[in-house]
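Hey, I was hoping to borrow your eyes for a little while. I've been puzzling over a protein and I'd love to understand its fold better. The fold is given in discrete form, as structure tokens running alongside the sequence. I'd be grateful if you could look everything over and explain what you see. No rush at all, and the record is pasted right below.
>
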Amino acid sequence: MNPLLTFLLLLVGLTAFAWTMRGRLRALGALSKDDQARTRPVGLRLKKLLCFGFGQRRLVLSKLEFWPGLMHVLIFLAFMLLALRTLSLFWAGFCPWAYEVLTDIHAPFWASFPLLKAAYGAYLFIKDGIAVLALIGVVYFSLWRALGRPSRVTASKEAYVILGLIAALMLTEFLFGAAFLCSKAFWLASGANLDALVAPTLPAAASTVFEEAAQVEPVTAWIAAHVLRGLSAQALFAVMQGAFWLHLTLVLVFLNLLPRGKHFHVLLALVNVFLQRLPVSPQASTSAALPTPKLEEEQFGMREFSQLSWKQGLDLSSCTECGRCTTHCPTHQTHKPLSAKGINLALRAYLWSREKTLLEAAKARGVKKEGEGEEGPLTAPMLGEGGLIEEEALWACTTCGWCEEACPVFIENIPRLMDMRRYRVQVEAQFPVELQRVFEGIERQSNPWGLAQEEREAWEGDLALPKWGEGGDYEYLFYVGCAGSYDERMKKVSRALASLLTRAGVRFATLGKQEMCTGDPARRAGNEYLFQTLAQANVETLNGLGVKAIITQCPHCYNTLKNEYPYFGGNYRVLSHVEFLAELLAEGRLKLKASDIPKLTFHDPCYLGRHNQIYEAPRQILKAIPGLELVEMQRRGRESFCCGAGGARMWMEEKQGERINHHRAQEAIETLRKANAAEEAKAHHKEAMDKGLRIDLDINTLGESAAGCIAVACPFCHTMLRDALSDLGKEAQLRVLDIAEVLAGAVEGPEE
């Protein structure tokens, strides 16, 4: 080969790449510092890197996205394997010995190292197979984009260019290897006689070379034997040289294209997965516990672009533009202005085009810290006039967690939005007018409705439940929550749960009038100061009373107590009521009878499911009740659709697009309608068979009845779905019941 030409190629290609990367890295370095631990614990991070980075697990979790995900995995594996081959070819370009050894598994060198030869042979065999699968993946994605591109994917010429480059890299590698085999066959068949190499076609005796090669590189050998065999030695030499140099050139072209577009994730994805913000517990989502700013250090949120941390900048650059964050996003699916993908692309465009501005802002920050200047030049504001994000988009987020659950490279969308809300609320006092009443209610009466704290235990009625701290030995604190204490409908759920705990002989008590809001609505609305004030006061109360274990019926209270209070010194065993009730059933402490509810569907709350991975407990309860049929909605479990109440949206009006709770309620209605229609069709078939008749029925043409029940495990979901059924005129057909109510109606014995 040609060491000089190889050197010149690398010099030009790597210099151009280094110049582009210099700009990208300087822009990231100009952003703010990141307060999160990003490198430890190393073992856990490496495990996640193997599973989600190299293993790309999130791409194949969804049934709807399985095939595109699988094809992406194949192309990724081929890319990784071919990278080793490409490095060896660059080495071969410099060193004749490397060229001889790395291109020929039967070279004399390998005879001295049989184990190494076996390993290299296995690599070549796997490389051949994966490269073919990658070509299939390229064809699949080309047709997928041209003929069946889903709405989540943006039309892109760049994608076709990259797919073409990937295919070209695979094909040039195959052609080089096949041409080399044919040239080797010429050499051996001619007895190493250079004069014999002018023969126009390959001698038949060369088949032995192909048969031996087929054991290691079957695809390459097949191409040599069936595609290139008819070429002359001179033509084969030209193909081999052309494929070799074209392959190396395309690699460097590909490398320089990566940091200039969405395929930058090829270089950054693994880094971003490794540096992800780890959840506070194995069951919690990344954003179950929001980062806690240090208010005493005036960390009041994010106003301008330069206040993004370098890791948030890395998130932007790592975005694959796959759009998976939008597939079950409640705001995007109901035509609101918020799109996690759209925000990422808008911020990334600014990041990549304002390197000089960011460097000046970073320099000004440094001067200000040293007391030598007042204020540096501002970068673009996040919101408001000239802002990068629409105000409506900021407040539309329900913090359901789908965008982060779906993202294959672990982009942290929610903390970024919450930081913007914090600045809007705490510094600029600009927020939806409905939140003013919520903040005042929590500040004055410790509940979002502003109802009297003296009435917090009125839900008990004649139950006369014991109070923690007034004597008695109690194992569990029943943390009722604001909705369970004040909302008239949710009071029934609180009473049902208290009744079940009493029947099961659980030693529990409540805080009564000492109970306060956990602060979840305030924190998700951006009022971090109010949240931290409540958190510190509640932790002081709970620790002072010696509370060790807590049961709560509200997933938002559950998430806050379990995942966010430990930061303030509140470490408790926190159980959702569905978890605890499932335990009581498993222990036989509640005896069941047949339910009077024949059919129901279950709605997974976001803060119980996606944020805390509690999917099975509610289903275990429902499946254990005799005579009760559970009919699942299409979007359930990990892919469940939000009710629209999270992120403090419970208290804000929806003024754009379709109402989220209507969207979800309609899915529940259709699920139960189809289940009832299928049952009706079955009855018709049985009747027809009894009469010796044959009929064909379509369940889509049968009755309109959606009679049944929507089971929930969250007071916010309960309210949102109940309101939606009322708006849609379906409240007479369907009931919304908490799982505690469903279970209470199926427990033997008198109600306590």
Notes: The longest strand covers residues 708-712. The chain is about 55% helix and 5% strand. The two ends are 89 Å apart (CA to CA). The longest helix spans residues 114-147.
